[in-house]
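Step 1: inspect the first sequence and its tokens.
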Amino acid sequence: MADLESGLNKTDQVLNSPLVETGGIPQALKDLDRWIVWKHVHRDGKDTKVPIDPISGCGFDSTKPEAAKPFNVALDAYLTGKYAGMGFVLGEGVVGIDLDDCLTNSELKDDSWQQDLIYALGTYTEISPSGNGLKMIGISDLQHKGISKAKIELYSCSRFFNDTGMTNDGH
């Protein structure tokens, strides 16, 4: 059972994560009060990201985007060194697309549908913390909670994306 104060289990092992390149995150996203911090832990045999409220330090409920904080509040909490990264809470018209295992050495693999999708949507795209995938954040009227098929996941609520700010395609 998770500790309500920290969002972590007693058996969780906190892991290191890459730095957040805040200069790569578009100002339009920074201007939205949708920011949290997170801890990267090893739980029950797999890695997971635990969302944390940047003010209280307690676990964050990603189904409540209205409780997220301004970018500068999350950044200040992240810079304390207590958290692995910053996250952006999806919902209320902001959606996220997760393209898993599509990069090798920060370059797209030969799957042309992924390149086509990135350019067709023309939205903010960044490299995931693993360095093996891409995350996209944009505006949509999508009403589904989430769709997960093969190497693509699409979410419109009840999720947060861990942001790296590392881009490689100019979007």
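Step 2: inspect the second sequence and its tokens, then contrast the two.
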Amino acid sequence: MYLKALCLTKFHSVLFLGDSAGGNLAAALSLRLRDMGANQIQPKSVALIYPALQGVDFSLPSYVHNSGAALGTAQETASVLLNYMGHSIHHSRDLIRNNHTTSQLKRDIQPFIHINHLPEQYSHDTRIINSTFTEKPSFVEDGSSDLENSLRPNLLDPYCFPLMAKELSGL
């Protein structure tokens, strides 16, 4: 019913805007509408301000640079994401240490999330250079397979974490 009401409006003149978790929701909604083939209700524009778009790698610059700022501490961010996925926050330290995924999953998601996709300016940041993420081949250490198994449906769901979508064009 609500979708029908949206279709009757001039939805193409609407902007989806969100920051942090709101940015995640704006991206996920835009992705969902595109995938539903609801072209008549696609927003004119989507603006994302430090959005939470992935939950696999907490050593990327967006988490490193913004920890303690608008996003809160790394611990708080991990706790919020675990709540969002419907899991206990007692695993937040595992997320911060990237100990919530196995090396196989980390290799599988590299086409979606990898430091090589970032602008070159970030390669000179010592906080990133000194991290295990860039010193060694990407994602060499295994995390908890049990924790990964419980989080996997959410971590790979593009409507939960939009960067996991195989295609982002048309949003």
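Step 3: confirm your contrast with the notes below.
The first strand starts at residue 15 and ends at 19. Residues 12 and 156 are 29 Å apart (CA to CA).
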